[in-house]
Amino acid sequence: MAGAHLDSEPDTVGVNDNASGSAGLLEVALQMAKVKPKNKVRFAWWGAEEANLVGSTFYVTNLTPQQQAQITLYLNFDMIASANYMFGVYDGDDSAAQGSGPGPAGSAQIEKLFEAFYASRGQPTNAADFTGRSDYGPFIAAGVNIPAGGLFTGAEGIKTAADVAKFGGVEGAQYDPCYHDPCDDLFRVVQKGGDAALYAQLRSRYKLFGNINTFALDTNADAIATAVITYAFDTSTIPPRTAPAAAKATVAGPQTDANDLHLR
Ligand SMILES: [Zn+2]
């Protein structure tokens, strides 16, 4: 399953947050009409993410435990074309050891698939902490434990010198200088309050269309396509999880380290 939130903050059209993720995912869904996948692929465009993950929470909590168990993995795309971008990949294995811990078992493998994609393009990545701040939150929640992964090109965080060495752009400025502001717009960034000098500087280093970084959008759309088509045919890298009813039955058996579940 793959999803992106379709809503934005009320005072902005939200062309990066999150028309970028919604449009990237929609294009992949349209292209998927050309293939007959082995596995079922479900696409979701969530409502009311910005009002505290309302749509995705409703969806996940209204699945039966059996239906939840049938979702092998969930991919999330929330902000994939930030003007002053980084290539952030959700830190499924918590290798950065920052903020929240790792995702459910299998999340590390999803992170690896995305990292391999960027490596194949000669592009570096950053670990994006699994904060639960987007629609994957209800999927990875305790008791649900669906492996998850996804992309994030940065919001209100500040680009560092190390980031500039990897991705270019402007040090000391937000990854998305118009995050949750009216200037997160496709046409009138400066007219809607964007910092004219900063956007002029960004445009001297990157190709921007409004508040969209077209290189980040193009690359990340390919990353989404790679992940969706890979898992549409083969989820064998994702360790199986036991259904809730079956999980109870195994409690009586020999206790194994949770990490053993990664080994197949
Ligand atoms: Zn968002």
From TrEMBL:
Segments of skewed composition (Low complexity): 244-256
Recorded superkingdom: Bacteria
Protein name from the UniProt record: M28 family peptidase
Domain Peptidase M28: start-end pairs: 1-189
Organism for this UniProt entry: Dactylosporangium fulvum
Region (Disordered): 244-264
